[in-house]
Amino acid sequence: MNKYPWIINQYHDLINKYSNSTLHPIILIQSSLGIGTSQLILNISKWILCFHKKKYSNCNNCQSCLLFNYKNHPDFYNISNVINNKYIGINLVRNVINNIYKTSQQGGAKIIYFSNINIFTAESNNALLKTLEEPPKNTIFFLRTTNITQIINTIKSRSTIYYISNPKEKVSVNWLKTFNKNYSYIHLITALRINNYSPILAHKFLNNNEFDKRNIFMNAIQKYITYKENVLLTIIFKYDSSIITKYISYLLLDIIKYRICRKYKIKNLDQVQLIKKIACINTNQTLINSLISWIQYVQILSSSYTIDKKLIFIEQILSWIKILRI
Questions:
Q1: Which one of 112, 179, 210, 244 has the fewest beta carbons within 10 angstroms of its own beta carbon?
Q2: Whole-prediction pTM
Q3: Is 224 within 8 Å of 230 (Cβ atoms)?
Q4: How many whole angstroms separate alpha carbon 241 and alpha carbon 264?
Protein backbone atom coordinates (compact mmCIF):
# COMPACT_ATOMS: atom_id res chain seq x y z
CA MET A 1 0.00 0.00 0.00
CA ASN A 2 3.03 2.29 -0.09
CA LYS A 3 1.92 3.26 -3.60
CA TYR A 4 -0.84 5.38 -2.05
CA PRO A 5 0.48 6.46 1.37
CA TRP A 6 -2.70 8.34 2.37
CA ILE A 7 -4.68 5.08 2.76
CA ILE A 8 -2.06 3.05 4.62
CA ASN A 9 -3.81 3.67 7.95
CA GLN A 10 -7.09 2.22 6.67
CA TYR A 11 -5.18 -0.77 5.29
CA HIS A 12 -3.54 -1.48 8.66
CA ASP A 13 -6.79 -0.91 10.54
CA LEU A 14 -8.80 -3.39 8.47
CA ILE A 15 -6.04 -6.00 8.62
CA ASN A 16 -5.70 -5.60 12.38
CA LYS A 17 -9.43 -6.08 12.83
CA TYR A 18 -9.37 -9.22 10.69
CA SER A 19 -6.37 -10.58 12.61
CA ASN A 20 -8.20 -9.96 15.90
CA SER A 21 -11.44 -11.52 14.57
CA THR A 22 -13.24 -8.19 15.01
CA LEU A 23 -13.73 -7.31 11.34
CA HIS A 24 -17.41 -6.85 10.55
CA PRO A 25 -18.42 -9.07 7.60
CA ILE A 26 -20.15 -6.19 5.80
CA ILE A 27 -17.99 -3.13 5.14
CA LEU A 28 -19.47 -0.09 3.42
CA ILE A 29 -16.87 2.37 2.19
CA GLN A 30 -17.68 5.96 1.23
CA SER A 31 -14.98 7.61 -0.87
CA SER A 32 -14.41 9.79 -3.91
CA LEU A 33 -13.15 8.43 -7.19
CA GLY A 34 -9.43 8.38 -7.82
CA ILE A 35 -8.01 8.05 -4.31
CA GLY A 36 -7.12 4.34 -4.43
CA THR A 37 -10.11 2.78 -2.67
CA SER A 38 -10.34 -0.12 -5.11
CA GLN A 39 -6.62 -0.80 -4.69
CA LEU A 40 -7.09 -0.74 -0.92
CA ILE A 41 -9.84 -3.37 -1.11
CA LEU A 42 -7.91 -5.51 -3.59
CA ASN A 43 -4.80 -5.48 -1.39
CA ILE A 44 -6.73 -6.35 1.75
CA SER A 45 -8.60 -9.13 -0.08
CA LYS A 46 -5.38 -10.60 -1.43
CA TRP A 47 -3.87 -10.52 2.07
CA ILE A 48 -6.90 -12.24 3.62
CA LEU A 49 -6.85 -14.99 0.99
CA CYS A 50 -3.06 -15.52 1.08
CA PHE A 51 -1.92 -18.88 2.53
CA HIS A 52 1.38 -17.55 3.90
CA LYS A 53 0.58 -13.98 4.88
CA LYS A 54 2.81 -11.91 7.15
CA LYS A 55 1.63 -9.13 9.44
CA TYR A 56 0.76 -6.63 6.72
CA SER A 57 1.92 -8.28 3.50
CA ASN A 58 1.01 -11.26 1.36
CA CYS A 59 3.56 -13.78 0.11
CA ASN A 60 2.72 -13.21 -3.58
CA ASN A 61 3.85 -16.78 -4.33
CA CYS A 62 1.21 -19.15 -2.98
CA GLN A 63 -1.52 -20.57 -5.19
CA SER A 64 -4.05 -18.08 -3.80
CA CYS A 65 -1.84 -15.07 -4.55
CA LEU A 66 -1.09 -16.32 -8.05
CA LEU A 67 -4.78 -16.85 -8.77
CA PHE A 68 -5.46 -13.37 -7.45
CA ASN A 69 -2.73 -11.89 -9.64
CA TYR A 70 -4.32 -13.49 -12.70
CA LYS A 71 -7.74 -12.16 -11.65
CA ASN A 72 -8.98 -15.71 -11.49
CA HIS A 73 -9.42 -16.40 -7.78
CA PRO A 74 -12.57 -18.54 -7.34
CA ASP A 75 -13.31 -17.13 -3.88
CA PHE A 76 -12.97 -13.47 -4.78
CA TYR A 77 -15.97 -11.96 -6.56
CA ASN A 78 -14.94 -8.62 -8.04
CA ILE A 79 -18.11 -7.21 -9.53
CA SER A 80 -16.28 -4.15 -10.88
CA ASN A 81 -14.52 -6.48 -13.32
CA VAL A 82 -17.60 -8.13 -14.77
CA ILE A 83 -20.06 -5.32 -15.43
CA ASN A 84 -20.17 -2.99 -18.38
CA ASN A 85 -23.75 -1.85 -17.87
CA LYS A 86 -24.95 1.31 -16.17
CA TYR A 87 -26.63 -0.70 -13.42
CA ILE A 88 -26.22 -3.96 -11.49
CA GLY A 89 -29.22 -6.16 -12.22
CA ILE A 90 -30.78 -8.82 -10.04
CA ASN A 91 -29.49 -11.73 -12.12
CA LEU A 92 -25.88 -10.77 -11.46
CA VAL A 93 -26.52 -10.38 -7.73
CA ARG A 94 -28.38 -13.71 -7.54
CA ASN A 95 -25.53 -15.46 -9.33
CA VAL A 96 -23.00 -14.13 -6.81
CA ILE A 97 -25.24 -15.01 -3.86
CA ASN A 98 -25.77 -18.57 -5.08
CA ASN A 99 -22.01 -19.08 -5.37
CA ILE A 100 -21.05 -17.73 -1.96
CA TYR A 101 -23.30 -20.24 -0.21
CA LYS A 102 -21.15 -23.02 -1.65
CA THR A 103 -17.97 -24.25 0.03
CA SER A 104 -14.90 -22.09 -0.48
CA GLN A 105 -12.83 -23.58 -3.30
CA GLN A 106 -9.50 -22.65 -1.71
CA GLY A 107 -10.56 -23.55 1.80
CA GLY A 108 -10.41 -20.00 3.17
CA ALA A 109 -12.61 -16.93 3.19
CA LYS A 110 -14.93 -15.77 0.44
CA ILE A 111 -14.87 -12.09 -0.47
CA ILE A 112 -17.36 -10.08 -2.51
CA TYR A 113 -16.52 -6.62 -3.80
CA PHE A 114 -19.22 -4.40 -5.28
CA SER A 115 -17.32 -1.36 -6.53
CA ASN A 116 -20.40 0.86 -6.92
CA ILE A 117 -23.59 -0.05 -5.10
CA ASN A 118 -25.14 3.24 -6.22
CA ILE A 119 -25.99 1.53 -9.51
CA PHE A 120 -28.00 -1.28 -7.91
CA THR A 121 -31.59 -1.63 -9.06
CA ALA A 122 -34.33 -1.82 -6.41
CA GLU A 123 -34.58 -5.58 -7.00
CA SER A 124 -30.79 -5.96 -6.61
CA ASN A 125 -30.87 -4.03 -3.34
CA ASN A 126 -33.58 -6.31 -1.98
CA ALA A 127 -31.74 -9.48 -3.02
CA LEU A 128 -28.49 -8.28 -1.47
CA LEU A 129 -30.24 -7.14 1.69
CA LYS A 130 -31.65 -10.62 2.34
CA THR A 131 -28.12 -12.03 2.23
CA LEU A 132 -26.69 -9.28 4.41
CA GLU A 133 -29.25 -10.07 7.10
CA GLU A 134 -27.62 -13.49 7.57
CA PRO A 135 -24.35 -13.60 5.61
CA PRO A 136 -22.65 -16.98 5.06
CA LYS A 137 -19.88 -17.86 7.50
CA ASN A 138 -16.34 -16.71 6.69
CA THR A 139 -17.66 -14.36 4.01
CA ILE A 140 -16.77 -10.67 3.73
CA PHE A 141 -18.65 -8.04 1.74
CA PHE A 142 -16.90 -4.87 0.58
CA LEU A 143 -19.52 -2.39 -0.62
CA ARG A 144 -18.27 0.86 -2.11
CA THR A 145 -20.17 4.08 -2.74
CA THR A 146 -19.33 7.59 -3.86
CA ASN A 147 -22.59 8.94 -2.37
CA ILE A 148 -23.70 7.25 0.82
CA THR A 149 -26.84 9.40 1.04
CA GLN A 150 -28.27 7.37 -1.85
CA ILE A 151 -27.76 4.02 -0.10
CA ILE A 152 -30.85 2.56 1.54
CA ASN A 153 -30.87 2.72 5.33
CA THR A 154 -31.37 -1.01 5.77
CA ILE A 155 -28.05 -1.72 4.05
CA LYS A 156 -26.28 1.01 6.02
CA SER A 157 -27.66 -0.33 9.31
CA ARG A 158 -26.17 -3.76 8.62
CA SER A 159 -22.74 -2.45 7.70
CA THR A 160 -19.68 -1.01 9.33
CA ILE A 161 -19.18 2.29 7.51
CA TYR A 162 -15.74 3.62 6.61
CA TYR A 163 -15.38 7.19 5.39
CA ILE A 164 -12.19 7.65 3.38
CA SER A 165 -11.47 11.30 2.68
CA ASN A 166 -9.36 12.72 -0.10
CA PRO A 167 -5.79 13.29 1.08
CA LYS A 168 -4.84 16.78 2.16
CA GLU A 169 -3.75 19.03 -0.68
CA LYS A 170 -0.14 19.17 0.49
CA VAL A 171 0.09 15.36 0.71
CA SER A 172 -1.35 14.97 -2.79
CA VAL A 173 0.93 17.61 -4.32
CA ASN A 174 4.02 16.00 -2.73
CA TRP A 175 2.94 12.62 -4.12
CA LEU A 176 2.35 14.11 -7.57
CA LYS A 177 5.73 15.82 -7.49
CA THR A 178 7.45 12.45 -7.00
CA PHE A 179 6.11 11.20 -10.34
CA ASN A 180 5.88 14.48 -12.26
CA LYS A 181 9.16 16.29 -11.71
CA ASN A 182 8.87 18.35 -14.90
CA TYR A 183 5.82 20.22 -13.66
CA SER A 184 5.86 23.25 -11.38
CA TYR A 185 4.04 23.45 -8.07
CA ILE A 186 1.37 25.67 -9.66
CA HIS A 187 0.78 23.12 -12.44
CA LEU A 188 0.53 20.24 -9.96
CA ILE A 189 -1.95 21.99 -7.71
CA THR A 190 -3.98 23.10 -10.73
CA ALA A 191 -4.19 19.53 -12.04
CA LEU A 192 -5.19 18.34 -8.58
CA ARG A 193 -7.96 20.91 -8.14
CA ILE A 194 -9.33 20.43 -11.65
CA ASN A 195 -9.66 16.72 -10.84
CA ASN A 196 -11.55 17.37 -7.60
CA TYR A 197 -8.54 16.76 -5.36
CA SER A 198 -8.01 13.22 -6.62
CA PRO A 199 -4.23 12.63 -6.83
CA ILE A 200 -4.58 9.53 -9.01
CA LEU A 201 -6.85 11.26 -11.55
CA ALA A 202 -4.56 14.31 -11.47
CA HIS A 203 -1.55 12.10 -12.24
CA LYS A 204 -3.37 10.60 -15.24
CA PHE A 205 -4.45 14.07 -16.32
CA LEU A 206 -0.82 15.22 -16.40
CA ASN A 207 0.34 12.19 -18.37
CA ASN A 208 -2.28 11.53 -21.04
CA ASN A 209 -2.06 14.88 -22.90
CA GLU A 210 -5.23 16.22 -21.25
CA PHE A 211 -3.29 18.89 -19.37
CA ASP A 212 -1.66 20.02 -22.61
CA LYS A 213 -5.03 20.13 -24.38
CA ARG A 214 -6.48 22.18 -21.56
CA ASN A 215 -3.54 24.62 -21.78
CA ILE A 216 -4.09 25.04 -25.52
CA PHE A 217 -7.73 25.87 -24.82
CA MET A 218 -6.82 28.42 -22.15
CA ASN A 219 -4.20 30.03 -24.40
CA ALA A 220 -6.79 30.33 -27.16
CA ILE A 221 -9.11 32.21 -24.79
CA GLN A 222 -6.23 34.51 -23.83
CA LYS A 223 -5.45 35.27 -27.48
CA TYR A 224 -9.12 35.82 -28.27
CA ILE A 225 -9.36 38.45 -25.54
CA THR A 226 -5.98 40.11 -26.04
CA TYR A 227 -5.31 39.93 -29.77
CA LYS A 228 -8.77 39.14 -31.18
CA GLU A 229 -7.30 35.99 -32.74
CA ASN A 230 -10.32 33.89 -33.61
CA VAL A 231 -8.82 30.40 -33.29
CA LEU A 232 -10.89 29.72 -30.18
CA LEU A 233 -13.90 28.23 -31.95
CA THR A 234 -11.68 26.01 -34.09
CA ILE A 235 -10.04 24.55 -30.98
CA ILE A 236 -13.34 24.18 -29.12
CA PHE A 237 -14.93 22.09 -31.84
CA LYS A 238 -11.88 19.81 -32.00
CA TYR A 239 -12.44 18.72 -28.40
CA ASP A 240 -15.14 16.60 -26.81
CA SER A 241 -18.05 18.81 -25.74
CA SER A 242 -18.15 17.28 -22.23
CA ILE A 243 -14.51 18.27 -21.68
CA ILE A 244 -15.09 21.81 -22.91
CA THR A 245 -18.17 22.06 -20.69
CA LYS A 246 -16.08 21.06 -17.67
CA TYR A 247 -13.30 23.55 -18.48
CA ILE A 248 -15.69 26.44 -19.06
CA SER A 249 -17.74 25.68 -15.92
CA TYR A 250 -14.64 25.53 -13.74
CA LEU A 251 -13.32 28.74 -15.30
CA LEU A 252 -16.60 30.54 -14.66
CA LEU A 253 -16.60 29.34 -11.05
CA ASP A 254 -13.06 30.63 -10.63
CA ILE A 255 -13.94 34.03 -12.09
CA ILE A 256 -16.90 34.34 -9.71
CA LYS A 257 -14.67 33.29 -6.79
CA TYR A 258 -12.05 35.82 -7.81
CA ARG A 259 -14.58 38.65 -7.84
CA ILE A 260 -15.80 37.65 -4.38
CA CYS A 261 -12.69 36.53 -2.50
CA ARG A 262 -9.74 36.81 -4.91
CA LYS A 263 -7.63 33.68 -5.25
CA TYR A 264 -9.12 31.52 -2.51
CA LYS A 265 -9.35 27.88 -3.73
CA ILE A 266 -9.29 28.76 -7.42
CA LYS A 267 -9.00 25.58 -9.48
CA ASN A 268 -7.21 27.11 -12.47
CA LEU A 269 -4.45 28.55 -10.35
CA ASP A 270 -2.10 28.85 -13.34
CA GLN A 271 -4.61 31.08 -15.13
CA VAL A 272 -5.00 33.89 -12.59
CA GLN A 273 -4.23 36.63 -15.13
CA LEU A 274 -6.87 35.30 -17.52
CA ILE A 275 -9.37 34.98 -14.68
CA LYS A 276 -8.61 38.55 -13.59
CA LYS A 277 -9.13 39.89 -17.14
CA ILE A 278 -12.54 38.26 -17.55
CA ALA A 279 -13.55 39.24 -14.00
CA CYS A 280 -12.83 42.90 -14.78
CA ILE A 281 -15.13 43.06 -17.81
CA ASN A 282 -18.17 41.27 -16.36
CA THR A 283 -20.58 41.66 -13.49
CA ASN A 284 -21.30 38.93 -10.96
CA GLN A 285 -24.78 38.48 -12.36
CA THR A 286 -23.52 38.05 -15.93
CA LEU A 287 -21.08 35.38 -14.81
CA ILE A 288 -23.63 33.61 -12.63
CA ASN A 289 -26.17 33.60 -15.47
CA SER A 290 -23.57 32.08 -17.80
CA LEU A 291 -22.72 29.37 -15.27
CA ILE A 292 -26.41 28.58 -14.74
CA SER A 293 -26.87 28.22 -18.50
CA TRP A 294 -24.08 25.62 -18.60
CA ILE A 295 -25.64 23.71 -15.71
CA GLN A 296 -28.97 23.75 -17.53
CA TYR A 297 -27.22 22.60 -20.71
CA VAL A 298 -25.85 19.53 -18.91
CA GLN A 299 -29.27 18.77 -17.41
CA ILE A 300 -30.97 19.02 -20.81
CA LEU A 301 -28.47 16.63 -22.39
CA SER A 302 -28.88 14.07 -19.61
CA SER A 303 -32.69 14.12 -19.74
CA SER A 304 -33.43 14.23 -23.45
CA TYR A 305 -32.35 11.95 -26.30
CA THR A 306 -34.24 13.53 -29.20
CA ILE A 307 -32.61 16.96 -29.30
CA ASP A 308 -29.81 18.09 -31.60
CA LYS A 309 -26.96 18.07 -29.08
CA LYS A 310 -24.43 19.60 -31.46
CA LEU A 311 -26.69 22.54 -32.24
CA ILE A 312 -27.35 23.26 -28.56
CA PHE A 313 -23.61 23.08 -27.84
CA ILE A 314 -22.90 25.61 -30.60
CA GLU A 315 -25.55 27.93 -29.15
CA GLN A 316 -23.98 27.58 -25.71
CA ILE A 317 -20.52 28.43 -27.01
CA LEU A 318 -21.68 31.45 -29.00
CA SER A 319 -23.52 32.74 -25.95
CA TRP A 320 -20.52 32.13 -23.68
CA ILE A 321 -17.92 33.92 -25.79
CA LYS A 322 -19.88 37.16 -25.36
CA ILE A 323 -18.48 37.46 -21.85
CA LEU A 324 -14.95 37.40 -23.32
CA ARG A 325 -15.45 40.56 -25.37
CA ILE A 326 -13.93 43.80 -24.12
A1: 179
A2: 0.89
A3: yes
A4: 28
